[in-house]
Amino acid sequence: NAGVTQTPKFRVLKTGQSMTLLCAQDMNHEYMYWYRQDPGMGLRLIHYSVGEGTTAKGEVPDGYNVSRLKKQNFLLGLESAAPSQTSVYFCASSSFGGFGYTFGSGTRLTVV
Amino acid sequence: GNSVTQMEGPVTLSEEAFLTINCTYTATGYPSLFWYVQYPGEGLQLLLKATKADDKGSNKGFEATYRKETTSFHLEKGSVQVSDSAVYFCALIIQGAQKLVFGQGTRLTINP
């Protein structure tokens, strides 16, 4: 069982570059989430989705876009990366909100 | 709004010491409460949960009791091991809501 898989695991970007982080889950979960984790600030929700074709903003959505074209995939895009987006990004999924969150192992992104 | 406050870290203990990590919450509705653990280089894993007042969640020697009167969900372990070194997150979700709210995390280091 793969659970939640994030790719890539590490990435270094230059300011202004764009990239897409991919999250894939094989548990048929309806809900998917993108968080960022910064030192001393815990996890902050960027965007989330409650089903295929839906997305919603979290606490810190600015500078990010998301898409959920297929139920198993949730993509996080950075159109023009900034140093403030240097962080560790975690994807999670759940069968219904809150209970049984499964997290991916994270993507460490550095923007220089 | 809904929020979770954890004791500030880092916390450093010797092996076999007693552990308490404090967690208090504010909630507009009736929450379920969780503790998640993050080992180095990994995503978060559910450690334990409680869904109603006076419930006690337990797992791997850790315990936490849902105290509605003090709006608290403190994590305890009687005798910690080096392998318990990790970051611990308290979290809540309101019934009917779609996403967890996390505390800022507490880093725990256990020395042999």
List the helices and strands and how they pair.
The complex is a heterodimer of chains A (112) and B (112).
Chain A: E1 4-7, E2 10-13, E3 19-25, E4 31-37, E5 43-49, E6 56-57, E7 65-67, E8 73-78, E9 87-94, E10 102-103, E11 107-111
Parallel strand pairs in A: 2-11
Antiparallel strand pairs in A: 1-3, 3-8, 4-5, 4-9, 5-6, 7-8, 9-10, 9-11
Chain B: E1 3-6, E2 11-14, E3 19-21, E4 23-26, E5 31-38, E6 44-50, E7 56-59, E8 62-65, E9 75-77, E10 86-94, E11 101-102, E12 106-111
Parallel strand pairs in B: 2-12
Antiparallel strand pairs in B: 1-4, 3-9, 5-6, 5-10, 7-8, 8-9, 10-11, 10-12
The tally of helices of chain A reads 0
Number of strands of chain B: 12
Radius of gyration of chain B: 13 Å
Mean pLDDT of chain B comes to 93
Beta-strand content bin of chain A: over 45%
| Intertermini distance of chain B | 41 Å
Oligomer state equals heterodimer
Helix and strand succession of chain A? EEEEEEEEEEE
SS element count, helices of chain B: 0
Q: Spans of chain B with pLDDT under 50 lasting ≥5 residues?
A: none
Following the backbone from N to C, one meets helices and strands of chain B in this order, namely EEEEEEEEEEEE
Shape of chain B: globular
Instruction: Kindly provide the radius of gyration of chain A, computed on alpha-carbon positions and rounded to a whole number of angstroms.
Output: 13 Å
Low-pLDDT stretches of chain A are none
Which structural class matches the secondary elements of chain B? mainly beta
What is the percentage of strand-forming residues of chain B? over 45%
What does this structure look like?
The complex is a heterodimer of chains A (112) and B (112). Chain A is mainly beta and 112 residues long. Chain A is built from no helices and 11 strands. Chain A has strands spanning 4-7, 10-13, 19-25, 31-37, 43-49, 56-57, 65-67, 73-78, 87-94, 102-103, 107-111. In chain A, the strands form 2 sheets. In chain A, strands 2, 4, 5, 6, 9, 10 and 11 form a 7-stranded mixed beta sheet that branches. In chain A, β7 (65-67) and β8 form a beta hairpin. In chain A, 38% of the residues are buried. In chain B, β7 and β8 (62-65) form a beta hairpin. Helices cover 0% and strands 52% of the residues of chain B. Chain B is mainly β. In chain B, the strands form 3 sheets. In chain B, strands 2, 5, 6, 10, 11 and 12 form a 6-stranded mixed beta sheet that branches. In chain B, strands 3-9-8-7 form a 4-stranded antiparallel beta sheet, with no helix packed on it. Chain B is globular. The termini of chain B are far apart. The interface between A and B is medium-sized, with 22 and 20 residues.
